[in-house]
């Protein structure tokens, strides 16, 4: 439990009720009826005041028999925790590891455990790109690498980075670089020779 030099119970209760992230890492609250402890910013249902205990650190809450909330992850050593960040990171990794495959939004959403609609909206809000746009960026970056570091022609590169249609590859490449793949490859060769 807390010592006398810490925040008053009223301040901690107000931070808990308002889900105030400014207090994350300064204290934790535990709910006697559920056996769970949380960060002040946790968006779970507000507990009854009589069922709450406050702790200065996660270790003390765990020592008293409370388990960490799966929503706000107070057991992690970070001051703040954004559960949606892992969805973004996992989506990016999935795309980067599978860019050359015929990958669809439904596959990605299933892989990260959310609906396609939710993933599309969340990813766009956080990165300003849809997963499809991110996939295209990854493919074009890989194509640029291949065009400047291998002897593959632009058609071979297009297929190798996951495009099923060469016209789609050319259009996407030109949209991103302002060059056709062949022009880009020629410019890359010029730079190497000069």
UniProtKB/TrEMBL annotation:
InterPro entries: Ada-like_dom_sf (IPR035451), Ada_DNA_repair_Zn-bd (IPR004026), Homeodomain-like_sf (IPR009057), HTH_AraC (IPR018060), Me-P-triester_DNA_alkyl-Trfase (IPR016220). The keyword Transcription regulation applies. Keywords: Activator, DNA damage, DNA repair, DNA-binding, Metal-binding, Methyltransferase, Transcription, Transcription regulation, Transferase, Zinc. Its cofactor is Zn(2+). SMART domains: HTH_ARAC. Residues 89-187 form the HTH araC/xylS-type domain. One of its GO terms (molecular function) is zinc ion binding. Pfam families: Ada_Zn_binding, HTH_18. GO terms for biological process: DNA alkylation repair; methylation. Gene3D superfamilies: DNA Methylphosphotriester Repair Domain (3.40.10.10), Homeodomain-like (1.10.10.60). It comes from the Bacteria. This is AraC family transcriptional regulator of adaptative response / methylphosphotriester-DNA alkyltransferase methyltransferase. It comes from Aquisalibacillus elongatus.
């Amino acid at each position: 439990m807390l010592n006398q030099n810490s925040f008053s119970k009223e301040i901690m209760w107000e931070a808990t009720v308002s889900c105030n992230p400014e207090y994350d890492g300064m204290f934790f609250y535990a709910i006697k009826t559920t056996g769970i402890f949380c960060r002040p910013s946790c968006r779970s249902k507000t507990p009854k005041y009589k069922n709450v205990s406050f702790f200065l650190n996660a270790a003390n809450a765990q020592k008293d028999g409370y388990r960490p909330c799966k929503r706000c992850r107070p057991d992690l050593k970070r001051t703040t925790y954004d559960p949606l960040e892992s969805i973004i990171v996992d989506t990016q990794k999935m795309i980067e590891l599978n860019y050359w495959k015929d990958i669809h939004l439904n596959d990605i959403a299933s892989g990260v455990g959310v609906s396609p609609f939710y993933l599309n909206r969340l990813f766009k809000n956080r990165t300003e790109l849809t997963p499809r746009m991110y996939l295209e960026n990854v493919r074009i970056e890989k194509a640029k690498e291949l065009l400047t570091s291998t002897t593959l022609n632009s058609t071979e590169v297009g297929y190798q980075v996951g495009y099923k249609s060469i016209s789609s590859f050319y259009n996407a490449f030109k949209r991103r670089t302002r060059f056709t793949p062949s022009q880009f490859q020629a410019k890359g060769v010029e730079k190497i020779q000069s």
